[in-house]
Amino acid sequence: MENAIHEINNDNSSGLSFEELHRNAYNMVVNKYGPRLYTGLQITTEKHLAKIADTIEQRNGEAMLQSIRHEYERHKKSFSIIREIFMHLDKSNAKQRQYKSVHDLGLELWRRCVIRTPIIMSRMMETILQMIENDRNGEMSDPMLIRSISVMMIDLGAEVYVKDFETAFLEATRTYYEKEAADLIDRVSCPEYLEHAERRLKEESDRVAAYLHPTSGPKLAQVVESRIVAAHAQTLIDSSTGAIYILEHGDYKNLHRMYKLFSRVSCVDVLKQAVSNHIKQLGVKIVDDSEKSMDAGSFVCSLLELRKKCDEMLRLGLNSDKSFSQALNNAFEYFVNKNPRSPEYISLFMDGKLRKGTKGGTEEELEESLENAIILFRYISEKDLFEKYYKQHLAKRLLNGKSSSDDLERSLLGKLKVECGYQFTSKLENMFNDIRTSRETMIDFKNWQEQRDSSSHSCVDLSVQVLTTGAWPANGQQGACNLPRELDDGCKQFKAFYDESYSGRKLSWQTGMGTAEIRATFGRKKHEISCSTHQMVVLMLLNESDRLQYSDIASATGIPDTELKRILQSMTLVKGKNVLKKIPDTKEILPDDVFAVNDSFTSKLYKIKIGTSAAVRENDIEQKETREKVEEDRRPQIEAAIVRLMKSRKVLQHNDVITEVTRQLSYRFNPSPAAIKRRIESLIEREYIERDASDRNLYRYIA
């Protein structure tokens, strides 16, 4: 048997009788000589492999690997034959499990007698790692040879492949890419580096597929990623051609490349912070721009343009990542609320899109613009302030008949209801109902007039809007001014009709919210003037007098001083609308100033519009007044939230009250801790809640 094994190992098995060898092996096992047969096989093979190892050690480099490959193939072939001969020995051993199978013995002997000998192991590892490095450097190598050696090491088990080869391979990889990254990071631009890193990771993935075991893939990728991406993530962000440069130039291809690479090494937060900070800077720049911050349209359009850019960046560069989307939303929320006029400006933008005569494109384009405005609306923390402005602007559109489309108005109202709930839009819906009811009321009024003596009819074509108290914004001009006799007669007729039709209701005239159309003659030219009711009252006074002092006009009309000055300026200072002249011709209006009809007034237009009915940006004084009104409206809301909370909890710490009340009211506004504290003090004074006797920061509900 020993001679036969020698012949098989030396490829001289053609003269052997395998039937006889199999029978001899069988007889030895049956006669209890199995262990002797197994030991003999082991000793004979060890002697043979010792010679093979000596032969391999005589070679270096790739020649050595080729020799290992050749001898390993011979060894596998030999042991496949020996295993057939020793088949019964394996079957007997399978029951008793005294020693390894013949196949495993062959691998163990090859591992111990050849591969793990110090010289062969050292040279083999050195050569393989050098060949892989040459491959990385783009030099010629034999991937099939590396694959053959890799397969052999895998056959020999984890002790060889993982412990001897993979550990050294990963360490060599770490050193290689650490050096390469340190050299490249200072030499090439960020986009070039990212492209190189992506290419390297692809190459290493292909390398695993070409000649390594699949289990090496994740480990290899982790090493490469840590050396060429994670180690330099912050440098890539801060580089002059890094994240900010990529964002500024709209290079979404490289942004996506950076996002993918950073995602692999859990460095996405670094990129997210950089993107968020950049968008914040762009937004703050818009907010701080003195020109844009003074013009609602320019301000909102700039924000929408930035939002559009961010959406494109998310889609093309950041894989629509939800965490990035949230970070961008937080950035927008920061700088949108940095401008205290944002609620007013967004409402003015919507007003511009919904107003008749606006050049805004088709209804679909207007719908898209309003949808975009709703996106900005979501970022507003003071939604109650927006509601205040939106109600004012909607009132002007409805009362002046300037709304371009009822469908668009209803559509936007529906969007606001989705965002903030029914309570937010209930009064707005009541405004629409009032306008519809007023149209029906005016039809009834006309019919009522026709049934009366025609001589009692007013010479004025009167149109009255009956508004529900509380549903409409107060414009600061409460009550009626002194109307001309012609108009006063018509108002008295309408009041008589209304009192007759609706018992128990009281009309209160709000002339400051009305408009008028009058015919006027300047020299020989006739014009039709569209103006506010108050402007009409002033103009009608000059039918009876050639000129009037400011003090006389104020006394005759009863219009508040601030409003009257604004009216007179609109009819004297604006070119093309200066139907009156002022003496002296100065901008400031004083009590002794004199006003008269401007007989030299000319205009190519027959119809002159004086006093814009379009909503305009509030001045600082008006803005302060609006904010004070909103702050006043917030007080009962804060108190109601505190009482609800205390009623349900009974006892609560001060900080918990602040936190919970802020959370409950955040859908409308963010109350300051100081404002909440003032309301708490007020409720204590009114005995809704009380302080704990031993802990002043603890509140108790009083039933």
Describe the 3D structure.
The structure is a single chain. The chain is mainly alpha-helical and 703 residues long. The protein folds into six domains: 1-156, 5 helical Cullin repeat like (Up-down Bundle), CATH 1.20.1310.10; 158-266, Cullin Repeats (5 helical Cullin repeat like, Up-down Bundle), CATH 1.20.1310; 277-432, 5 helical Cullin repeat like; 436-511, no CATH class; 514-609, Cullin, Chain C, Domain 2 (Ribosomal Protein S5, domain 2); 620-701, Arc Repressor Mutant, subunit A, CATH 1.10.10. It is 66% helix and 6% strand. The chain has 29 helices and nine strands. It has helices at residues 2-9, 18-30, 34-57, 61-85, 87-96, 102-115, 118-136, 143-155, 158-184, 190-211, 216-228, 233-238, 243-248, 252-264, 268-288, 296-317, 322-336, 342-354, 363-379, 383-399, 406-420, 422-450, 485-501, 533-541, 550-557, 561-572, 620-649, 654-665, 673-685; strands at 515-522, 525-532, 547-549, 580-583, 594-597, 607-609, 651-653, 689-691, 698-701. Strands 1-2-6 form a three-stranded mixed β-sheet. Strand 1 (515-522) and strand 2 form a beta hairpin. The termini are far apart. The model has no long low-confidence stretch (mean pLDDT 89).
